[in-house]
Amino acid sequence: MSIDWIKLLFTLLGLFIVLNYGLLQYGLIRRITARIGKRIGMPVYQPYIDLVKNYAMRSQITHGVMFYLGPVFRLVGGVGIFMFMPLIYGSYYWSNYSFAGDVILIMYFMFFGMLGMALGASEGGHPYSFIGISRGLSQFTTVEVPFTLAVIAVAVQHHSFSLTEIVAGQQGGIMHWNIMTNPFAGIAAMLAFLGMMMASPFNVVQAPQEIPIGPPTEYHGTYLGLLQTNRAILYVSESILMVNLFFGGATNWVELIVKSFCVFFWPVFVGLVFPRFRIDQSIPWFLKIPLILSIIGIFMV
Amino acid sequence: MEYLTLQNIGLVTGFMLMLIGLYGALTQKNILRIIVAFTIFDAGLNLVIVALSYIKGRVAPIIDQTTGVTNLSEKFVDPIPQALVLTSIVIGVGVTGVMLTFALRMFKTRHSLDINDFKQTKW
Amino acid sequence: MEDKKTFIDPDLTKRTVIGPNGEDITVDPIQDYFCDALPKKHEPKRAKIFENFFNWARAESIWVLGFGTGCGSIELYPLLTPRFDAYRFGVQMRPTPRQANLMIISGYLSVKTLKRAIRSYEQMQNPKFVMALGSCTINGGMYFDSYNTINRLDKYMPVDVYVAGCMPRPEAILAGFEALKKRIKAGKAEGANLYAENFETYKANQKKIIRDWNMPDYNW
Amino acid sequence: MEKIIQHLQGAFDVKAVKKQRNDLYFVTVGKDQAIPAVTYLRDAEGFSHLVMITVADWMEKGVFELNYIVHNYQLHADISICTNIDREEATMHSAHHLWEQAWTYQRELKEMYGIEFPGSPRVDESFNLEGWDNIPPMRREFDTLKYANETFFPRPGRVSHDPATYMKQKLYPNE
Amino acid sequence: MVSPVHIVSIGLITAFLLGLGKKSQQQMLVFVLMIATAAMTMVSGSWLIGLMTGSLKPTDVFTAGFKPPFAINLRMTMDEAVLTTMVNVFGFLTVIYLFDVLKKAGKHLLSIIVVFLIGLNVVVMTRDLFNLFVFLEITSIATAGLVIIIQDSKSISAGFKFLMASSVISGILLIGIIFAYSYVGNLNIDFMTNLSMVKGGAVAVFLVMTAIILESKQFPANGWALDMYESAHPAIGSALSAVSAPAILFVVYKLMPMVPENWHPVIGLLGLITFAFSNFLATRQENIRRMLGYSSVAQGGLMLTVVAMSVYFGQSFWFIILGFLLTNFFAKAGLFWLNGIVNSDDQNKWGILRKRPVLFFLFGVFVVAMAGLPPFPTFFAKWEMIMQLAQGNGWGWIVLILLGSIFEIAFLFKWFGRVFHAVKDQPAEPVIPWFKEFPVMLFGAGILATSYYFIKYQQFDNLFVLIPLLIVAAFVVIDFLPAFIKNILLIAALTFYGYIIYPEIKGNIMQLVFMSVFLVGGILTLIPGFATKGTRAGFYPFAAMTIFGLIMLVNPGDNLTFFMGWEQMALGSYILILRGKKAERPAQQYMLFSAGGAYLMLAAFGMLPHFAGDTFFGNLSGLIPGAGVVFVLFALGFMLKTAAIGLHIWLPGAYSEAEDDATPLVSGVLINAGVLGLFWIVTSFGPQQLFGYDIFQLMGWIGAITAIGGNMLAIYEEDMKRLIAYSSVGAMGYIIFALSMDSKLGLLIALYYMVLHFIYKTMLFMSAAGVIYRTKTRNMYEMGGLIKSMPWSFIVVLIGIITLAGMPPLAGFAGKWMFYNAVVMKGWYLQGTMVFFSGIVAFLYLYKLIASVFLGQLKDNHRRVKEAPFVYLLPQFIFVIAIMVLSIFPQVLLEPLATIIPDRVPGEAILWDGRLAMTSFGYWNAFAVMTTVIVMFATIFLWLTYHSRKAQKVKQFNIVFAAERPFRPETTHVSYNMFAGYKKALGWLMTPLATQFWTGISDWSTAIADKVRSWYTGNGQTYAMHLLLYAFVLYLLISGGKIL
Q1: What is the extent of the structural domain holding A279?
Q2: CB of E731 closer than 8 Å to CB of E668
Q3: Which of A151, E148, E706, E929 could form a disulfide with E645 if both were Cys (CB 3.0 to 4.6 A apart)?
Q4: What percent of chain E has pLDDT over 70?
């Protein structure tokens, strides 16, 4: 197998762009959040500083090999999702490594990071890590159900699991977007997206006031830096996934960024309005409205 | 009136005796009475056997002066049931004997002859 | 009443348990459960430009450990409200000492709390700063003659910034942040290294008042 | 209320009764009668709530005065059963069998005053003070300033002023 | 040649001689008796041999010199020879067995024994009706005499009841005989064949037959017999069961020619009812002898059926009846004798046998033979019987037989399990005299030899049946060797077997795949056995039996071989499970469910020829229309093994309570047998309808619900092995679902998952076994933090759970990917989502498994735990390598598997473009994914390693704990009820409906059995009444209310 070095370069460039975009987006959203709370808020570039500071921590501790590997798994999961997803429709070089697999691969690759993180945090031996992970996994099981149904609905509609083809099928104006052609599946997926982002009201996993911050309680310094890096990449990647699935994909970077920013804003707004669910409230919630919507969506196809 | 032959009387009596015996065996609580009832049952049974083989006007298959030695098959009733009944009586007596032995031993173990007292093995 | 008591912590005494194969296993909790390494001094980066850059980052991104002692902790909450909005200065609250850089001792410290404060302080990672609020941490304040409240925080851990007042108002705390930032940027906020260098002194002071010292010397 | 006090006087050897308010009386009884009196109040007169157990240190008299304050929800009235115990051999009967929460008070009294409550659960564990190995600090013979000066590294240069005079001096130096 | 009449004469002479003997010469008299019985045996035996070899011709003995019908005649043909030999051999052995009793008892007892034997011999041989009556009476009286060897109140009253009953019966018989005589004019059976044609003759026939049927102790008029079994000396019980009952049945056989054709089914049905109900009632028995009594009665009923239907069975009659007869003869006598040796009716006291391996082995052999499991004759007889019945559409009969059989298995294996585990509190070394052991051993040898001949007679494919059985037998023989050697030998045997079998199956990829799963799985799961010390008695024969049973499934020439392999595997694995410490109940459950499944399959096999002719079902090709019921029966049978929801309750207990290193074999390897069967029926039958409903649709739902149910149940398990076991339930649901999709991709998923599940589940169970081996606990909340001491096990579990969860880049993802494509193509979105949901639910328990055990806080008592032994790790790492290879090159497995799927299956297959797998929906390149992930991982890992090279290693309590410190590892480790929130939210899904259902069934049957058996009041008069009522009802049944 010959490696297409230019493509690799483009992919890395894309990764770099997405990382920066993710960090800025996070800062911007924090700032907007602050504005809603009538505060001024932190500078937009604050995530960069945090990142640099965390990487610059002088001392570190480790609980063992798996503790070490947790953030690695997590970041591989995040970067992997990015790598296996086509960014710009119609561009060979911006399609990343999407030739390796379709949307199923991406969906399952999300688990990779989660599991690694869960194991790493568990090796820390902190009870809150266990509690946070048990909540996170519990919630995740039900989040994925409507999402998967929605994805299947889209796949059936376009007769393909390939993201490229799904995007291709949505070209030609806003009325061709899946959110318009199959609104039920689209809404279900958007509701599930709330859970995937683990923003309020579904942030009981980290719940800073209750179980410090859940799984990453023991992580600091470089580990935390990796996790922050991952968050920037992963959240953007997930938004891009939603864009590709339901919002017609993107034919250039501007479109991509605008769309994914709008998508990303959805959980932020919801999170600002709604208080946190308990875990035994959020689990049934996902099995009610989103699930029913997605079932309707799948039979509408 | 033609039904009132000796054979039929024997048969009916025999069956009656059998039924009486069975009834006794099934209703009496005293073991000895049960044994007696079984003897009655046996007697009735034997009577039925004999009655079945009876042919009017013939005699028991015992060769003596009155019968002579010729044409025996026409003079005698069917000899086989007669022989059978002998065996049957012997067996009946044997069974009665064994039953009585058992009754004795049962009485020795529990000092009772009520059959309801011997229900240790059930279900 | 004058005889010195010995304090026995049932959770930390040596004990013998029976292993899966019936063998006796002696567990010495302090030895077996806790890392007994001592803190090391971490030299700043030799390249000045890197160190300055990192110090700038540290100064602009101060993560505060949410640890409230005494009455001053009530003054911390307004910091996050729209009126004072400490986020503007890159100050954020963290719930876990592992991720925090700044520990705010917000008021008087009883001996019992001091033990916890020390533990949390030691669990923070190297560039770490301490800000002490109120007179009580400076010289005991109104509790100067209490049998149970310390007088001087800097005997027990290196303090970067004192904010005087009883209690200091949020504006004063914000000023304290600014002062701290200046110190960090100037490369003077080496509290963690100071602690490592003078570890024995600090430990001696701490142990003098914390009689039932039931933890390892350094809480990693 | 008066009736209850009379009942108490009838049933126990009451040494003194002091009426603080209409709904607050202080009744002094002997050491051995304190717990029975409290029990009586709880069971017979409806004083079902233990407000607190507290102590006053009468060093001059050489006694601790223990107060069991109980409250009646129907009458909205309190009665404090007081008893004096010897300061040197401070031992008192435990009341934890009457109210579960009593042992917390007793644990505190043990720590702060050194009063023994035999039979009270967890009474020997430290309450507020961890690792205290001196005289119980609330006893009046304990000199806290001396102790603080010896122990807590007083910052040199610290001075104390009488607020009134100091402020007067500061604000109106000319008067 | 010695005339058969000399059997009688020898007996008579002996009786006289015994009468002459004196009290002081008792011992000598016993020897005289012994010689006499030996001589009788010789006579009948010589006839048997003579008739078999053909040197003698069947003869009649005319007693009075006249030919019948004018005189009594005895006949000696093959039938009589066999039966008299049985009677006399048994008599001889009884005398030996009762040596100590006879020495003390009076000489009359010796005479009674002789009379008893004479009676039975003549009953067998005579052709004269009245003579038959006489000797039946003589036998009865002798029996009554024998009963009072034990002179307690119980046995005496039982004897009296017996006499009452036999009086009534003899009355009926005698009337019948006399009627018969009066209509026919003679008493010879051979001249009575047309009796029923004569007007009124039918009544005579009816009376005679009724009496004989009553004499053969049919349910429910058999209370007297049961009481006899319960109270008589075990030797007498064995005589009643092993020789008396067969003799009576032979009488029935003799009389059958005079019975009108249309009565045969009625009599047969009565026998079957007896079989079913007696076994049913036996399930409630605690008293061993009474239980054996019920069992004897049941066997008698079954044999009565066979005898009554002898015309119907035609050619196979002899095969069937011999199968039942010999098994009953050897096994029942053996069990009664063992009862005498143990000398207790309390099941728990039977633990004595555990001290005597040979006796215990024989006990097992007898029980298994009685239960009708291979390789014993009953198994073949039952198979043949069902097949014959099925040809005549006798479904009701089959149902009764199968019901009875399952009850039989229920009580027999309950007993066996109890005895197996009743080791505690036994006297150190029981004293068992040789003359008690000798007959048992002889009969044990007898049943083994019989089995051998039955197997030989079946003419199986030697390579697949006989050689494996011989290997199993060899391991029985060498069971005394140390475990180490036996392990090597078994592995070598399996390897060698694989070597010789390979050329046979090379061409058939399907067989190759399953064979390698079973063989390789067998070998690898045996490797951890090296860690055990001692002889590990009883493990290896059954491990071999299980593995070879599985192997028989792979290449069966016909249905019987398949079924035999199936039962053999069930039996072997039952013993393996039973060996666990607390496995008595789970093993019993396992056996019951296995047997239930097997009997469903048996019924299906019976129906199969209707639809498909005589071929083996695995060789069928294409759709078989209208075979819905067969399909459902098969599917149920196999789904019992794969533990579909509702049928799964045996699984967790069985898997978790089995010995830790046997669990991988029992679960990971064995469960694939069910998959094999399901695959076969799905591919060979094609879509089927039942009541107009698509069965595949139904199966799909069952699969989906199983997947969710299994995984959901696993979440809340605290027991490591139970958790993995429930996970197997989930995985099997997945496979059932995939199979039911009936598309190329679906079947491919099923096969792929079968292999993969085998790999990772075996691996996980082994890893769990290693952990349990070291920590000596199965509760996960008692472990924690073992990663430091058992890193290799951790890696294995990590790989295992990543595979199980189907995460890329490991091999599990292939299954998930194909699954989506298949679901979308099939259009089963809802079921598909349920299965998908179950897949995510799996994360929960997987996390719990790995985190609770390996991560978190190390417990005090595990501080010195070492890594699992090398022999545990070795196979695990072989599996890990296999997974890695499959992850990078999935086509290595997927492409050959795809060739197995027949062409008729609809749907599209995966297209391979180099390393890229494609369907019309999606694509996936395992190699590219793996490479990308490895590169990413390595980059980030190296960077982190460089960056954190100076990180301080800390210990378990160096965690931030809200400024406090943790107190104890136990209180810091969050493991117990880890998913409490989930339980609160979705716990209602976990209502144990299945358990409630099966418990309900069990309670119900118990209650019914209790009600029914209260019929046996213990009162002799009631029993006599039963007899009369029975006769009356039988009359109504036969005549249909009309006068005969």
Answers
A1: 5-300
A2: no
A3: E706
A4: 98
